[in-house]
Amino acid sequence: MKYHISCSNPNRHYINIEVTTPTNGDDSMTFHLPAWRPGRYELANYAQNIQIWDAYNEKGEKLQSHKLTKDSWNVDTKGAIEVTVKYNFFSYQMDAGASYYDEQQLYINPVNCLLYIEEKINEKCTLKLSIPEDFKIASALKFNADNEAETVDFHHLADSPFICSPDLMHREYSVGEYLFHIWIQGNAKPDWDKIIHDFTRFSEAQINIFGELPTKEYHFLYQLPNHKFYHGVEHLDSTVICLGPAYRLMEKDVYSDFLGVSCHELFHSWNIKSIRPIEMMPYEYSRENYSNLGYVCEGVTTYYGDYMLLRGGVFNFDEYAHEFCKTLQKHFHMFGKDYMNLAQSSFDTWLDGYKPGTPDRKISMYFKGMIVAFMTDIALRRDTKNASSLDTVMSKLFNEFAKKNKGYSEEDYLTTVTDIGGRSYQQFFEQYIWGLEPLEEYLASCVSYIGCKLMTYENHDTCEALYGFKIKEENSKSIIIQIAPGSPADKSLLSVNDEIIAVNGMQCDKNSLNELLRFHHGETIALSLFRSRELIYVPITSGDETYFSNYILVKKNDTTEEEKANFHSWAGVKF
């Protein structure tokens, strides 16, 4: 399979693609465009970006073709020696998994725009780019002087994003025998010394777990827009991360996100790109790849994303605890935790995993998965007197499955945890992964094991804390997006999508709404709101109970020497 990408009208944002392959005497060939991309477990319908699609023989004569499905085409190749499909693809979506073309850059994720033939998916591919002479290429692919590269098969090509631009910034660092590249596209002023120092530390911490990196070179590809954004996508030997605003890169909050998402995506090089569920070995690009193991692929990775920053000495404990509690709050504020278990949330990601969805129906495999990964780690440390941990589990999965090119099952994961822990973890899985057992009690015992405690404190947002509803500002409108079951908002029959416009007849925005509700705490007040464009009035009274609590993780004052030793073993730094 030979691919050629060219582009000439940046204001139109269409890239031109040619795919050429021998027919080998076949009378027809079926070309597919992937229906999803690994790293985001939902169907994407990339074919909607194609405007023109035609097939030709080696003489340039047009061949008959027709669509079989929304993203597959059959070509009548009878008599042709080779066939070339020519099509264009609208590339104007800026995130970590899309494709984008304008006057400043050509940025491609091949999985969303390159065709494949199922029977040829394991054959070698070549890719040629026709780009301006002053464009540099950021990619794990090895392009020659003619901007050509080879991949071992379509899977490799699909997993190899690239950015072409004259403005790319580039630095390198090494950890042992492994070379890392950092590429930045955007209006940023990076502090390279600090970035290289911090990246070296967390890269080394991760390599120490497994003893090796799955690839000799690894590339961090950054798209840094001038607006607020946060998104990362993993690949075996690279990642694309879209983060903004670029001009605030080195400020504490944005830089903390920069470190967290980068560490997270690097861990994916082992976990999901190498250690992969059996259902995705190999990937099937034309349909959903259902698996219960998202709590390992994403939950464990979410845990290690911040944990490796602590272990690597990049975050201090307070910085780590802040990120840890942000995830706790996201999970405990999701009332779907009473209805959907962790394994189900992994499976149902294909249904509605990346949008708010039906109220109180679901949880996140990322958020609860992170908490359960931490609990698993501490349980293993407690059962083995700190001789083994979740590190041991992930290392064993890497050696016994990934390095042998085998996928693992949920039973394999349970067996591995059980073997390393030296006892049955069946009940643990039944309660916290396959069941709906609340996490709070077990989680408290885990943080206590490392000399810490979890504390809750009142949310300062009055709508959330005293009345039990969350709002978002949307075009200067205060829209209810979540209601706590049993709260004053719930009892007063407020609804999601209600637009609150006044309190006791006084017009309000989000800030004044909170101020007025706090001022009238304990009183019965009248909320004026629009519901389906109809103006209605709802009486509501706050009580003594609070909702949507915040969490803080702190070190205990009465910590024992044993707990301090446990903390040291877990965190890699003294208590």
How is this structure best described in words?
This protein is of the alpha+beta class and 575 residues long. The chain folds into four domains: 2-165, Immunoglobulin-like (Sandwich), CATH 2.60.40.3650; 168-269, Neutral Protease Domain 2 (Neutral Protease, domain 2), CATH 1.10.390.10; 287-299 and 313-458 and 554-575, Neutral Protease, domain 2, CATH 1.10.390.10; 462-541, PDZ domain (Pdz3 Domain, Roll), CATH 2.30.42.10. It has a seven-stranded mixed beta sheet with strand order 5-4-8-2-1-11-13. Strand 6 and strand 7 form a beta hairpin. Helix 2 (192-210) runs parallel beside helix 3 (252-267) and helix 2 (192-210) crosses helix 4 (294-311). The longest helix has 19 residues, at 192-210. The radius of gyration is 26 Å and the shape is globular. The termini are far apart.
Write the layout of secondary structure elements.
Blueprint: E1 2-6, E2 14-22, E3 28-32, E4 53-57, E5 62-63, E6 65-69, E7 72-76, E8 82-90, E9 100-101, E10 106-108, E11 125-130, E12 136-139, E13 148-151, H1 154-158, E14 162-165, E15 169-175, E16 178-186, H2 192-210, E17 217-224, E18 229-234, E19 238-244, H3 252-267, H4 294-311, H5 317-332, H6 342-347, H7 349-352, H8 367-383, H9 390-400, H10 410-421, H11 426-432, H12 440-449, E20 452-457, H13 462-467, E21 469-474, E22 477-483, H14 488-491, E23 499-503, E24 506-507, H15 510-519, E25 524-531, E26 534-541, E27 550-555, H16 561-571
Parallel strand pairs: 1-11, 16-17, 17-19
Antiparallel strand pairs: 1-2, 2-8, 3-7, 4-5, 4-8, 6-7, 9-10, 10-14, 11-13, 12-14, 15-16, 18-19, 20-27, 21-22, 22-23, 23-24, 23-25, 25-26
Helix pairs in contact: 2-3, 2-4, 3-4, 4-5, 4-8, 5-8, 8-12, 9-10
